[in-house]
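Suppose a colleague, Dr. K., hands you the sequence of a protein chain of 257 amino acids and asks what its three-dimensional shape might be. Before reaching for any lab equipment, you can write down a predicted structure in token form. Begin with the sequence itself:
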Amino acid sequence: IEDGTSDNNLRYIGKDPDNYVEFNGEKWRIIGVMNNVKDENGNTASRIKLIKSDDIGRYAWDDKKTNNWTTASLQIYLNDGYYNALSEDLRNMIDQVEWPLGGIEAEIKTSTGVTAYNILATTEEAYQKERGEEVYGSNPTKWIGNVGLMYPSDYGYATSGGRECFTKKLNWSSSDNCASNDWLFKTKPQWSLTSVSNCLETDINVFMISKFGNVARRWIGAVTEEVASPVVFLNPNVKYVSGTGTDVDPYQITLEK
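The predicted structure, expressed as tokens, is then:
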């Protein structure tokens, strides 16, 4: 579907859509066709956005206890060790692009010594805030790189639970119609790219998609080890070869030279 944002991106939605792609000998999935994405030279184009179907394990978002993606330990691993381990042909399929790093406010609640951060944004609001200027401290609002993570809005727009899912806060639950019809929902916490903009000085945080279906971050912060699923943008010259996009017949792609 078209997501109705200012960029009018095309999204795969539902519990298990046919959006599987074979990439690096593994199954990846298409988040969507994202419009107005800038590459490292500022050239704007529509680009296919992929996420690895299976995560690569549990990592700290940043073992230095910051929520600055440009220097985060997970960012360095994904764009150094992980990216450089890919073949040259696969690296050429991935575009180096501009990733917005706008933060989102969280509602801070403390109970029995634990501080919970629940996101203060709907899917529609999250998309705008991710592209905004509100960040924690002096964090950058943009980053140029090859491999990132999904945004809270990517998770939100992947549901087929109905239009009301996009207009209510992303504090869903695993039992409601929004999370249960969202292919990006998993029963284990997953890191997102987006930071909490109104952190406490003693509690620097980023958002995750929790195993309960909501977008939040708990008290331990970015040093917590959670599941990481790499996300990339394909070069516009990557073309479809064959396949129907199902789990057993994923799309086959190649780089047109």
